[in-house]
């Protein structure tokens, strides 16, 4: 996704890159804002998982709730919830009870 934020890409090139996705619009800050948003969600989840916070919420843009596991969608480049869930599972060795898809 970093490629979409290159300064060498103009408005028309970004529009062409976005066209296969559902309601995505790329600008020269898309990659950075998506990475910061995903990182913020992960940081809040880490703080809760470590017991430093009782609960938390990350009010971020883009929110990351439309993206699929393998594709950007609905102006979300990454699935922030999926990313932070995997981070927590892997970092503190939580294994969920019941059927899981990995």
Automatic annotation (TrEMBL):
Histone deacetylase domain span: 15-84
UniProt superkingdom: Eukaryota
Residue ranges of coiled coil: none
Pfam name, any one: Hist_deacetyl
Protein name as catalogued: Histone deacetylase domain-containing protein
């Amino acid at each position: 996704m970093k490629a979409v934020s290159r300064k060498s890409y103009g408005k028309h090139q970004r529009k062409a890159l976005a066209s296969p996705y559902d309601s995505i619009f790329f600008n020269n800050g898309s990659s950075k804002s998506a990475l910061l948003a995903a990182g913020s969600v992960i940081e809040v989840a880490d703080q809760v998982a470590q017991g430093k916070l009782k609960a938390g919420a990350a009010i971020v843009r883009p929110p990351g709730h439309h993206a699929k596991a393998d594709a950007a969608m609905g102006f979300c480049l990454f699935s922030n919830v999926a990313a932070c869930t995997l981070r927590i599972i892997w970092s503190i060795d939580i294994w969920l009870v019941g059927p899981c898809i990995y």
